[in-house]
Amino acid sequence: MDLSAYLLLSAALFSLGLFGVLTRRNAVSVLASIELMANAANLNLAAFARFRGEATGQVFALFSTAITVAEVVVGLSLVILLYRSRGNVLLENASELKG
Amino acid sequence: MSAIDLALVCTFLPLGTALLLLVLPGLRRAGKTAGAISVAAASVALGAALLLFMRALQSPMLERVTMQWLPHAPPGAVDAAQSTIQLGVHLDGLSVSMLVVVCVVALCVQIFSLGYMASEPPADFGRYFMWQSLFLFAMNTLVIAPNLLQLFIGWELVGLVSYLLIGYYWQKPSAARAALKAFWMTKLADMGLVAGLVVLFKHTGGFEWTVHTEVAGTVTLLLFFAVMGKSAQFPLHVWLPDAMEGPTPVSALLHAATMVAAGVFLVARAHPLFEQAPSTQLVMAYVGAFTALFAACIAVVQNDIKKVLAYSTCSQLGYMVCALGSGSQVAGFFHLTTHAFFKALLFLAAGGLIHAVHSNDLRDMGGLFSRMKLTASAFIIGALALCGVPGFSGFFSKDLILEEVFARGLYAPFAALLLAAFLTAFYMGRVILLALFGKPSSHAEHAHESGVSMTLPLILLALPALGAGYFGTTLSGLYAEPVHFHTSAVGMLATALGLCGLGTAYFMFGAPQGGAALRAAFAPIGRLAASGLVDRAFLAVYRHGLRAFASAIGWFDRYIIDGLINALGYGTLEAGARLRPLQTGKLQDYVYAMAIATLALGTAAVFLR
Question: Interface pTM (ipTM) of the complex?
Answer without folding.
Answer: 0.87
